[in-house]
C-alpha cells in the first residue's frame, strides 16, 4: 500500500462541519449588492448559514464564497470551546482586515460584548438562529436592490455542501444541563420543527438531487418531546416516525447526535430493513459513572454496553460513532482506565475525542481537581492509540467485502474519494478508488469491492 497515501487524520474535530462552499452562485450583475459568508462550527451552524444566504439571495443579493468583491461579510461564529471562540475571533479579525464591513452572528453572538471588546469595528452582532436580525443588519449595511425579473427564490435554496448531500436540522436547542456545555445557554431549550415541515424540506432536497440526508439537532432522540409528539398533517413528531418517513424518500438517511435512550431501540429495525442507514452517532462522552455524574450526563454507562449488544443483535451491520472527553475535572487514572476498558468492550467503529477545555460560563469550570494539560494530552494519546487499533481491525475485516459507496470527489488524477454507509462527511474515513473511475460522477452511488485497508480508510475497485 506504499503508493496509496490518503489517510484520514485521527485528530479531526468532531464538532466541525465540512468546509463551507457556495455551490450555487453566479457572477453578480451590474450594480447587484454582494454578501460574503464565513461559516464556522458545527453542521447546525452550517444550516443556519444556508438559511441566511437563501433569504439574502431571494432579496436580490449576490453571494460570494469569500471576502473578495463582497460589499459586506457575515461571519457565523462558534462558541463550543474556548479554542473555537478564539478561532471565531480570528475569523472576524481576518474579515475586518480583508473586507472591513463585517456582521457577526452565531453562538458567539450570544455574547456581543465579548466580540465588540476585541473587534469594536464590527457593524452588528446577533445571536444564534436570529435570522431576521441578521437580515436587518445586512439591510442597514448594504441596502437590497432586487430585480423582480431575475431574482427568484430557487426551490433548493443556497447550499454550502456539495449538491449530493445536505444537512437536515429537525430541532433547535437542548433540555440537558451538562456541566461542560453552554450550548443550551446560547441556543435555548428544545424546540422541535413540525414533522410535516421537515418532510417537505427533505422532499425538495431529494427532488433537487440530494442523495444523502444528514439528520442533525442538539439531541435527535428527544425530537418532538417539547410538542408532546404531536401529529400534524399526517406526520407524528417522533424520531422513529420521522426516520421512517424520511426513509421512504429513497435517499440515504444518516442520524447524528442520538442520545442512547431506551426508545432508540425502535430505530434499529428500520436500519436492519434498509430504510435508514445502519449508523448511529451517539455522544457517550465517558464511561465511568462518577465522571458521568460530575458531567451531569443524561445517560448511564452501565446500561450502554447492554444496549449496544442489543442493537448489534438486531442489525449486525450497524456502525456506531461517538465522541469522548478525556481529562475532565476530577478524572482519576482509575476512571480513565475504566474508559479504556469500556472502549475495548464496546468496540465502537468511529471515535472522536476532545481534551477537556474550560469554556466561559460552563459550570465545570468551578469543579475541583482540574487535570494538568500534559496529563490530558497523554491520556488523549493513549485513548486514540486504542481507538485507532480498534478501527484498523474493524476496517481490515472489510477487505474482500462488496460495499455501496457515495462518490464525494474525483480529483484531476482520476482518484475518487467516496464514503461507505459507515462514514459521515469529514468526520469519518473515506474509501478511495484509484482506477477505472472514468465513468463516475460526484454523487454517484456504486458498489465497490474492498481490497485494502488502513487505520481509518479503505481502498477498492468498482464491482461489476
From TrEMBL:
Its EC number is 2.8.4.4. Residues 33-143 form the MTTase N-terminal domain. Residues 1-30 are annotated as: Disordered. Residues 160-393 form the Radical SAM core domain. Binds 2 [4Fe-4S] clusters. One cluster is coordinated with 3 cysteines and an exchangeable S-adenosyl-L-methionine. [4Fe-4S] cluster 1 binds at residues 42, 78, 107. Residues 396-464 form the TRAM domain. It catalyses: L-aspartate(89)-[ribosomal protein uS12]-hydrogen + (sulfur carrier)-SH + AH2 + 2 S-adenosyl-L-methionine = 3-methylsulfanyl-L-aspartate(89)-[ribosomal protein uS12]-hydrogen + (sulfur carrier)-H + 5'-deoxyadenosine + L-methionine + A + S-adenosyl-L-homocysteine + 2 H(+). It comes from the Bacteria. This is Ribosomal protein uS12 methylthiotransferase RimO. It comes from Roseinatronobacter alkalisoli. The gene is rimO.
Amino acid at each position: 500500500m506504499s503508493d496509496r497515501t490518503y489517510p484520514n487524520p485521527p485528530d479531526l474535530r468532531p464538532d466541525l462541519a465540512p468546509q463551507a462552499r457556495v455551490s450555487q452562485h453566479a457572477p453578480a450583475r451590474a450594480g447587484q449588492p454582494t454578501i460574503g459568508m464565513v461559516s464556522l462550527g458545527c453542521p447546525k451552524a452550517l444550516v443556519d448559514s444556508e438559511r441566511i444566504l437563501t433569504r439574502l439571495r431571494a432579496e436580490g443579493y449576490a453571494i460570494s464564497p469569500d471576502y473578495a468583491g463582497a460589499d459586506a461579510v457575515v461571519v457565523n461564529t462558534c462558541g463550543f470551546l474556548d479554542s473555537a471562540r478564539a478561532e471565531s475571533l480570528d475569523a472576524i479579525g481576518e474579515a475586518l482586515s480583508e473586507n472591513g464591513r463585517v456582521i457577526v452572528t452565531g453562538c458567539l453572538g450570544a455574547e456581543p460584548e465579548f466580540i465588540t471588546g476585541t473587534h469594536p469595528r464590527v457593524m452588528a452582532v446577533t445571536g444564534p438562529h436570529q435570522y431576521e436580525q441578521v437580515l436587518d443588519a445586512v439591510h442597514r449595511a448594504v441596502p437590497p436592490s432586487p430585480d423582480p425579473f431575475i431574482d427568484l427564490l430557487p426551490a433548493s435554496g443556497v447550499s454550502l455542501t456539495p449538491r449530493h448531500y445536505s444537512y437536515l436540522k429537525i430541532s433547535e436547542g437542548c433540555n440537558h444541563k451538562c456541566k461542560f456545555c453552554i450550548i443550551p445557554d446560547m441556543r435555548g431549550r428544545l424546540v422541535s420543527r413540525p414533522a410535516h415541515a421537515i418532510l417537505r424540506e427533505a422532499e425538495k432536497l431529494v427532488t433537487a438531487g440530494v442523495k444523502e440526508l444528514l439528520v442533525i439537532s442538539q439531541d435527535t432522540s428527544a425530537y418532538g418531546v417539547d410538542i408532546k409528539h404531536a401529529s400534524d398533517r399526517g406526520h407524528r413528531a417522533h424520531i422513529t416516525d420521522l426516520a421512517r418517513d424520511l426513509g421512504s424518500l429513497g435517499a440515504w438517511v444518516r442520524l447524528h447526535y442520538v442520545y442512547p435512550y431506551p426508545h432508540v431501540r425502535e430505530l434499529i429495525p428500520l436500519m436492519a430493513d434498509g430504510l435508514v442507514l445502519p449508523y448511529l452517532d451517539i455522544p457517550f462522552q465517558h464511561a465511568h459513572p462518577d465522571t458521568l455524574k460530575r458531567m451531569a450526563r443524561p445517560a448511564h454507562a452501565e446500561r450502554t454496553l447492554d444496549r449496544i449488544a442489543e442493537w448489534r443483535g438486531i442489525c449486525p451491520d450497524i456502525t456506531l460513532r461517538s465522541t469522548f472527553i478525556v481529562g475532565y475535572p476530577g478524572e482519576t487514572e482509575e476512571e480513565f482506565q475504566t474508559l479504556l476498558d469500556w472502549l475495548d468492550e464496546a468496540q465502537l467503529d468511529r471515535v472522536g475525542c476532545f481534551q477537556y477545555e474550560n469554556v466561559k460560563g460552563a459550570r465545570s469550570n468551578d469543579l475541583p481537581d482540574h487535570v494538568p494539560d500534559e496529563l490530558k494530552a497523554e491520556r488523549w494519546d493513549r485513548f486514540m492509540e486504542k481507538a485507532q487499533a480498534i478501527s484498523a481491525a474493524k476496517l481490515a475485516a472489510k477487505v474482500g467485502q462488496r460495499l455501496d459507496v457515495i462518490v464525494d470527489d474525483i480529483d484531476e488524477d482520476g482518484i475518487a474519494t467516496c464514503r461507505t454507509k459507515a462514514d459521515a462527511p469529514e468526520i469519518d474515513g473515506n474509501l478511495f478508488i484509484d482506477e477505472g473511475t472514468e465513468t463516475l460522477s460526484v454523487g454517484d452511488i456504486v458498489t465497490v469491492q474492498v481490497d485494502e485497508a488502513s487505520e481509518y480508510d479503505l481502498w477498492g475497485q468498482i464491482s461489476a
